[in-house]
Design brief:
3 helices, four-stranded antiparallel beta sheet
Length: 198
């Protein structure tokens, strides 16, 4: 795969304000899991089952403090603006799911198709699996193009598998084709960087 044809990461730029989805600010401990999701925490590693939490529904109390089109939350979700959603719809870009957060913002979630990496040759290390739920404590390193098992189709935005993990939970990372990256770049989405998969 030539360097110019490699898939591209959709990377959120640094954001001044921390927004939360499954967690909330806590004056005593900094942050805590929202009450609605406490029963979805693993008793060992304390990670919340994100998929079950989304299925349960998102609280109306979530506030996104931002003016950009693409951002990451403190608990590693990707949030996109109505402008981003409308642009993808108009361009026929698919491959992801959406969950409405506010009148201006939506969660970008993994869809039915994934960018599948070989966990052995992908370039990342998966550290300390939890003895209770089996999830890794964290993932270190970056996924490499050599570990990608299938090419990325045109006009899709795909989450990756295996997923990246932080100490708080799953980190949502998204890939797209080089051609689709150019389409997104032309829209000048605020908060979005586009980097090659090396």
């Amino acid at each position: 795969m030539a360097g110019s044809d490699k898939p591209r990461w959709l990377v959120p730029k640094d954001h001044r304000t921390t927004n939360w989805i499954l967690r909330e600010d806590d004056p005593v401990n900094g942050t805590r899991v929202r009450t609605e999701y406490e029963d979805l925490q693993c008793p060992q590693c304390l990670k919340v089952d994100e998929d079950q939490a989304i299925l349960r529904g998102l609280p109306k109390s979530i506030v996104i403090r931002s003016t950009v089109d693409y951002l990451s939350t403190g608990d590693d979700f990707i949030v996109v603006s109505n402008r981003f959603v409308d642009f993808c719809e108009a361009e026929g870009i698919v491959g992801f799911r959406l969950a409405r957060l506010t009148d201006k913002y939506t969660l970008l979630l993994p869809g039915g198709s994934l960018a599948i990496f070989d966990p052995i040759s992908c370039g990342a290390e998966f550290l300390r699996p939890c003895k209770t739920c089996g999830r890794f404590r964290e993932t270190v390193g970056l996924f490499a193009a050599d570990g990608l098992l299938h090419p990325i189709a045109e006009k899709v935005i795909l989450s990756i598998a295996p997923s990246m993990e932080s100490t708080r939970g799953r980190s949502c990372w998204f890939l797209t084709s080089c051609a689709t990256a150019k389409i997104l770049k032309s829209a000048k989405m605020k908060g979005l960087d586009i980097d090659p998969l090396y």
